[in-house]
């Protein structure tokens, strides 16, 4: 399956589907999260990684979200959304989790393996390494856009 990625700027970093599941608020604070949220780029907004895999687009507002997605999708067998919801400490039920909203085509084991391979390649191109380190960067790096604004993975 073909894949490519690009970056876009959005007004709110919380608009990415994995935000709630990855960035947990610090108790007693409305603006602090673990891991830390991405930084806003002045006059542009928040950088989002948009990864196209076949006809599907996956959106991440932070490297931590990409790492979490890869970790979950690479798990064999695929965990249930109920189990993942409980791990977050949320009682949002099985249909509220990002995994339950992921297209069924992307959950097939062979497709998942291919998806993980492509995502690790993108991670390596963008962050310099294909595997999460102890300290995942908070923000996506900024580098010049190639002509056409899209990259092949």
Low-confidence stretches: none
Number of helices: 5
The tally of beta strands, per DSSP, is: 6
> Major β-sheet, in short?
4 strands, antiparallel
Q: How far from one another are the termini?
A: 11 Å
- Report strand %: 15-25%
The amount of helix comes to 25-40%
Spatial strand order of the main sheet = 5-4-1-6
- Rounded to an integer in angstroms, the radius of gyration calculated over CA atoms is 15 Å
What is the 3D shape? globular
Total tally of structural domains = 1
Walk me through this protein's architecture.
This protein is α+β, with helices and mostly antiparallel strands and 153 residues long. It has one domain. Helices cover 31% and strands 18% of the residues. A four-stranded antiparallel sheet has the order 5-4-1-6. A two-stranded antiparallel ribbon has the order 2-3. 27% of the residues are buried.
Architecture blueprint of SSEs:
Layout: E1 3-10, H1 19-22, E2 24-25, E3 33-34, E4 46-53, E5 56-60, H2 63-74, H3 81-88, H4 98-101, H5 109-127, E6 151-152
Antiparallel strand pairs: 1-4, 1-6, 2-3, 4-5
Provide a short characterization of the protein structure.
The chain has 153 residues and is of the alpha+beta class. The protein has helices at residues 19-22, 63-74, 81-88, 98-101, 109-127; strands at residues 3-10, 24-25, 33-34, 46-53, 56-60, 151-152. Helix 2 (63-74) runs antiparallel to helix 5.
